[in-house]
């Protein structure tokens, strides 16, 4: 996911609230589109893509804060941050393990067991991160985060 | 690091004016970390600057169509800066993890892990030097003036409709797809 999609029809005179609704809907859809297969630790790019989508959604919630109903906005932003944190706890060991595996493969034979021990301990951290991510995704679904994002957009600009 | 609040924003303001105020504020925040972040020893400053750059990048990515062409270029430049600062941060996170592991690993592994620490420290130094060069390039290109000029340009209101990009929103139910993935994942773990 190199970059977020450009929002159609965004012109300088479009009211901030109307723009907020359009951008929020687009970024929300992009987030859910990235959710498929995110718990599969054999394909770490899925978590990365969903994490980037979450960051973009969070950014939109912060950029357009003035357009949203404060209480609903605060609740949604908190839930998006929690999801982002959970994605980060999975992503950090993903990145570290990948870097260490590259290093291990180039290291001298005698050094490899020591590096592998570190990789093994980080794999345990990765599994814990994955369990936390699964809980965060379940919570997002049960609390209808998708629907609440749409309600925020509706309130902001129809 | 918390972003500073931008005053005077409201839903009726044009997106061009509102976004220009936000971009100016976010760029000021980025610049506020210089010269501290250019010192390789100031890890916290580099970390906070990375967050500030990320905020500016995302504002520009969303709003660059309402500004002059340099705004989109600025978004790419911030992405590049964020990327190198992110790699510096990755080293800053991993080095203490390896050091901690040395304290708990068998003696036979210590030498390999100290070699790994040295490798990561050298990589961190290279990446930070790359960040410093990148920043110097932005200053040489007079990035601030170019960005401010782009914010004053508000093209698009008379852009021919045929040049507008199609709406990329989909009518699918991605949340439903995620529910199915979660159910599949749970079934795999319990089977």
What do these coordinates show?
The complex is a heterodimer of chains A (158) and B (191). Chain A is mostly helical and 158 residues long. Chain A contains five helices and no strands. Chain A has helices spanning 16-33, 44-63, 70-106, 112-142, 145-157. The two termini of chain A are 28 Å apart. Helix content of chain B is 70%, strand content 0%. Chain B has 191 residues and is mainly α. The longest helix of chain B has 35 residues, at 70-104. Mean pLDDT of chain B is 86; it is low at 159-174 and 185-191. Chain B contains six helices and no strands. The chains are: A mainly alpha (158), B mainly alpha (191). At the A-B interface, helix 1, helix 2, helix 3, helix 4 and helix 5 of A face helix 1, helix 2, helix 3, helix 4 and helix 6 of B.
**Count of individual beta strands of chain B:** 0
Structural class of chain B: mainly alpha
Instruction: Give the overall shape of chain A.
Output: elongated
Q: Span from first to last CA of chain B?
A: 44 Å
**Approximately how much beta-strand content do the residues of chain A carry?**
under 5%
Structural class of chain A: mainly alpha
Give the ordered list of helices and strands of chain A. Answer: HHHHH
Provide mean pLDDT of chain B, rounded: 86
Major beta sheet of chain A, specifics?
A: none
Beta fraction of the residues of chain B? under 5%
* SSE topology string of chain B: HHHHHH
Binned, the helix content of chain B reads over 70%
The averaged pLDDT of chain A comes out at: 93
Distance separating the two termini of chain A? 28 Å
Unreliable stretches of chain A: none
**Greatest interface and its participating residue counts:** A-B, 62 and 63 residues
Tally of strands of chain A: 0
